[in-house]
Amino acid sequence: xxxxxxxxxxxxxxxxxxxxxxxxxxxxxxxxxxxxxxxxxxxxxxxxxxxxxxxxxxxxxxxxxxxxxxxxxxxxxxxxxxxxxxxxxxxxxxxxxxxxxxxxxxxxxxxxxxxxxxxxxxxxxxxxxxxxxxxxxxxxxxxxxxxxxxxxxxxxxxxxxxxxxxxxxxxxx
Length: 173
Prior knowledge:
By secondary structure, the chain is α+β, with helices and mostly antiparallel strands. The protein has helices spanning 28-36, 56-66, 82-93, 102-172; strands spanning 5-11, 18-24, 46-53, 77-79, 99-100. The protein has 4 helices and 5 strands. The termini are far apart.
């Protein structure tokens, strides 16, 4: 895919918990240098990820719309975890980032590992519940068999007692 620009994710150590999501048709580094040069910015921005885009304006708008619930009004800043922002931009831009910082890559890997661990734990719990249910059903079946056997034994005993009573009555005559 030949890109006409980029959608980028930036962080700033002076603004923890905030992610800037924007677009540019120039080199991302040039845009970041421009943003960081403003006197109102307490520290330089850090490039966390960049995505090549054939339509960066439309892709940026779609990302902003998806993250509207955590957007700072009228700004390109979002109160969102970097990993969550990365997931949204990845989905909208399609494919892997053109660049991803090692820290964000590690967070993404950790988040994926945690998610896989949660899935595995849910599966383990479901398997344990299924095994417990199977055990309960086996016990119920055993109780039902024992009950039937006891009923047959009681019926046989009752029959024997009637036979014995009949014999005793016959002898008494």
